[in-house]
Structures are given as structure tokens and as C-alpha cells.
Predict the 3D structure of the following.
Amino acid sequence: MALPVHASPLERIWHYAYLVICALIFVFLVAPILVVIPLSFNAEPYFTFTDKMLSLDPAGYSLRWYDSLLTFGMLAPDAPRDGAWYADMWRNAAWVKAAKNSIIVGFWATLLATVLGTLAALGLSRPDMPWRRAIMAILISPMIVPIIIIATGMFFFYSNPCSILGFECGRLTSTYTGIVLAHTILGIPFVIITVTATLVGFDQSLNRAAASLGASPRRTFFRITLPLILPGVISGALFAFVTSFDEVVAVLFLAGADQQTIPRQMWNGIREQISPAILAVATILVVISIGLLTTVELLRRRSERLRGMTPR
Amino acid sequence: MADLTAAAPLTTADGRPLKEALARAQRRAKTRAFLLVAPLLLFVIVSFVIPIAQMLHRSVYHDGFSANAPAVSAWFAANPPGTPPDEAAFAALAEDFRAMKAAKTAGEAGTRVNYTLPESRSLFTKTARDADRLAPPYRDAFLAVDPKWADPEVWQAMRSSSSAYTSDFYLSATDFRHTADGGIERVEPRQRIYVYLYIKTFVLSGVITLLCLILAFPVAHLLATLPMAKANLLMILVLLPFWTSLLVRTTSWMVLLQGQGVVNETLLSLGLITDSGRLRLINNQTGTIIVMTHVLLPFMILPLYSVMRVIPPSYVRAARSLGASSWTAFRRVYLPLTLPGIGAGALLVFILAVGYYITPALVGGADGQLFSNMIQFHMSKSNWSLAAALSAMLLAGVLLLYWLYDRLIGIDNLKLG
């Protein structure tokens, strides 16, 4: 991107203007995410930088909104902070409960999506796979079909899942199972996409070599294939987890009062009255996503090194 | 040698013809590949495809009237459309009303008729309350309860409700309605909301796609031409929003754009706007466009980048050395080479934008709502069949685009980061 020595003045001006434009677009991309971090430490219930904050006065900053995340919903938030207070917080605080739900649902949805998705990606990458294109289109479609249509469909189906067979058998709405199944569906396209992308560079002769040396298909899979595609599998799993961890529409339609997740709790907060406590949650989520992003980047480089692609 | 091969077909070591053995091995490989996919395919069909199909079925099926008013439904079936209701029809209706009062289902039947002719649900509940006092001559008894029973529009609405399968919901969803004489007409211009919103959704998605393209192109080009180490570092700035929760991004924008928010305060302190002239950037169409452009921008940058990275820089250099100006070299050589990336990114962003729900719901205010929000509105009002018809319309548009994407770009080429 270096400017050639023979560039005319006009080209020089354009070159620097172009760099400024790019810088502005990067600011547009990242600034909105980063701006919530300082604002979440605001001592006042406002959404702008107060004069005290701008002059870096410590009195302008506080952890009160983080504290309110713990106390909101507790039976006795003002009691002295002893063992009983923490027990109360762990059991009753709305955001803590939501976090527990998000992690439980996210864990099971990720597990299901990753196992089923990886198996399917292995099948889809085989040269002998019949109706490959059509099946791939179906498996990717949960990412394409508008979430509101998926959620309404599931809302009716899960309120009486056996109706298609002509009888009644309980319901899956307001259960953890229902939300886990919905989130699994939403996570599957990401697992398929990342794992098939890893398998594109996969050398099939390694499998044949293992087989010719007497390894059973199962042994070949666990000792040869899986270690090589593991980076793809893990980043697929992380995608699936993030999808579940950020999903609100299916939860709005399917969840009961006991299955409130973090996004659902945020949704309520944003719709009713937005307080800086939401910004505290947002900050925590941004930190989590920075961690996940780093993990995925490291995995991707490892995968490319393993497959002998261009070293970076 | 030639005689030998012609006489005896090739066989495997255990004496089977080679062709047959090969076909068998291929069949086995096919089955094995399919069995790996089968569990997931079954799961997706059962808990994704069937629920959506079942929901769409509601858009053509509603037995609220036909199941609860069988006698008058039978009368409609026996008499051709346009027949004025005779005493037998009123007698059948009275019989149905007595049954409905006992089973408390008049509201259900009324709801179904209400979809075709607004404000007829109350007529049903009111008549059901007096059902025990209906006595021959039935026509006069009904008119005594409510003179509306003489209205041919009511009877026309009941007729079109009398079969469980109906196209009425699609008529409403495309701003048409039944007339009293059995024809169809467009509704009043003021009430034509669905087609307008459908078109508006596609237009807004187009605007957002265009904005994404304009913003993504320079960034992707910069990333593709920088040395790998620097590009990877800047790539993190693109991927960070991609990995950040959608709700977090929407919240941040609400904080930035509101009347007392960071953007307005900054502009105010710079003296660019006055206190009374604060910009309205949120809870309207502008808010939807700004936030959705930000949310979908990475989906445009990533495919563009992956195409631009493999364009050899020597092509543009060759063009320049042959005397093209930098603008001509860009327009005639570089731009056409990036077209696959532009196509992939633009289609993906457009498809995702058309079905967006969360962002317009939170920052769209009154005029920034999209089609998905209308579906949610009718779901919350329990107008399930109309919501299903609207869903079918939206799904048709999205699937058409998805098919186009598969044909032009191929789903295999979908990449994430």
C-alpha cells in the first residue's frame, strides 16, 4: 500500500484522503462498542460523559451499576454483605439467574450443535455424498430464514410437538429443552460452515494411510481426522455458543419466567427504562467477546499452520 | 491381448465382475456419507422445517367458524354463492348458536368471521348471549337481536369462513378484501399497509446494502493490500463488532444517538447545532438505517476481503504501464475482478437485512419498523393466521434471494472470518 515514488501530487492527496476515510470507517466500526465501557462507570444515571468524567475526576466514576447488577432482584439487597447475602444474591438476583440460564442453555445447545454439525460436515465433505447441494442448503437455512419466522414456527410446534402425529404429549414451551433445541438449530449453520471450511484443505490420503496401516474407521477419526480439524470444530462451537448467548427472539417466544437469559433480561431493560446497568452488562459482554475473538483468531492460525497453508 | 479383454470381462480377485464390485463399493460409500449427515438432517427437518411448514399451514387453514357452526356451513355448501339467506339458513344458524352458547365457542367463530369482515366478532358474542330466546320465525328473531343480520356482507363473510381452507388471509395480507357480491377489491388507500411495508422493507434493505458496500469497499481494499501482519491486526477491528452481542451494539447506538446522547452533546459543544436543534437520530427510520448498517457491515467486508486478497496487484500495474490512468485502471481492471465479492457480500447483507427484527424493534420508532415487526405485532394480537400469511410472503422473498445466492455464489463459499 506504500505510495510509489513517482506518484503525482494529486495521487498523493488522494492516497492520504483514502487513508483518512478508512480510519473513519474503522472508528465507525469500533467506537460504538468501546464507548459503552467508560460510560458504564458513570457515577450519574446519565448516558453522556459528565464534566467530572471528562476531567478524569475519580468522583465522576463509580462501580454502582455493576453493584446494581448483583443486587437487583435480591430479597434483602441492603443487608450486611455476609454469607447469607451472597447466598441470597446467588439464588435470587435477576442478572445472576439470567447468567446461569444463559450458560446452561448455551452449553447444551453448543454441545448438540457441535456433535451433530461436525458429523454432518464430515459426511458433506465426502466426495460420494448424494444430494449434497440440496442438503447443504437445508442445513444452512436457519441462518438465512428470518428469526421471527423460526420463532413463530417453533412457538406453535413446541406448544404441542406431537400434534403432527395426531395426539397430545406435553409441551416444550417454557422448558429448558425447548430453548436448547431452538438454539441448537440456530447454531448448526455456523458449525457446518466452519468445519467444512477446515475440511476443504484436509488431505484425504491421510485417512487412507491410516486405514492401510490397519486402523479402524473409529480409530482413524479420533487419532487422525479429529486432531487435524479440531481448530475448525472449536471455532464452530464458539460461534454456536455466541449465537445462543446472544439470542433473544426465540427466548421471547418460547421461554417461561424461569428461563430468562441475559439477552432477554437486557431486552426488558432496554424496552422498559434503559439504565446504565445495561451498559455494565454490555461492558462485561464486550470483554467476553474480545476473549472469544482472540481464541478464534489463535485457533485459525493454528489450523492454517497444521494444514501447511501460508504461514503468517 | 485385445482378444483376451474382449472375451473375458475384468474381474476382482474373488471372481466378481469389476464393474459390479465397483458400483457396490460406491453405493456403500454413498450410504456411509449419507448416514453421517442423516442425524442432523432428521433433527433439522423435525424441529425446524416441520414447525415452519405447520405454521405456514395456518395461513390457509382456520376452522374457527366451520368447526363451530357446522349446520350453517352445510347450508352454504348446498347453496351457490349469492343466494340470499332464507328461513332454512336462519334456522341452521340458530341451531349453531345454541350449540356455540353451550360450548362457549361463539367468540372463536366470531374471530374467524372478524378476519374477513371487521367488527363482526361482537355481533357473534352478542347473539350468542341471546341464543336461547331465538324462536321461529328465525329471520325476525335474528333481526330483533341485531339488524346487522340482514346485511349481505355479514352473510358473505360467513360464507367465506364456512370452509376451513381459505385464501382470505392472503387477501388481507396483500391489502384486498371481499365485497358483498362475492368479488374482491383493494381496501381503502389509507388501510393499504402490508404491500407498502413489504416494498419499504426491501427498499430500506437495499439502502442499507448500498451503504454497507460503500463503507466496506475501501476498508476491504486496505486490508487486502496491507502486509499480512498489519492486515491481521486491523482485521480484529472488523471482527470485534462481528463477535459482539447484537443487543450490546444496539444499546451502544441508543446511548450514542439519543437526544441527550454522546453524538448530540458533542455536536452541541462544538457549536454545530443549537440546543433546540438536536438531531433526531433514533426511534425513527434514520436510527434503523444507521444501526443496521453498522451491524451488517462485517458481513460485507469479509467476502469482499477474501476476493480482493487473491487479486494479483500486477494486473493494475500492467494496466498503468500500458497508459491507463489510475481511475481507468480501477474501473476497467480492478472493479470487475472484485465483482464476485461484491455480489456475495451484497446478497448476504440484503438477505439478512430483509428479515431483521431486533434492531428495528429497539431503535426503529414508528416509521423504522420492518416486515418482521409487523409479523410480531400480529402474533402478539393472536392474529395467528394473518401472521402466518405475512410470514409466508416474507419467507418467499428470502428464499428467492437464498436460491439466487446459491446459484450465483454457492452456499459452500459462505465464510465467517
Summary: Chain A touches chain B through 93 residues (CB under 8 Å). The mean pLDDT of chain A is 87.
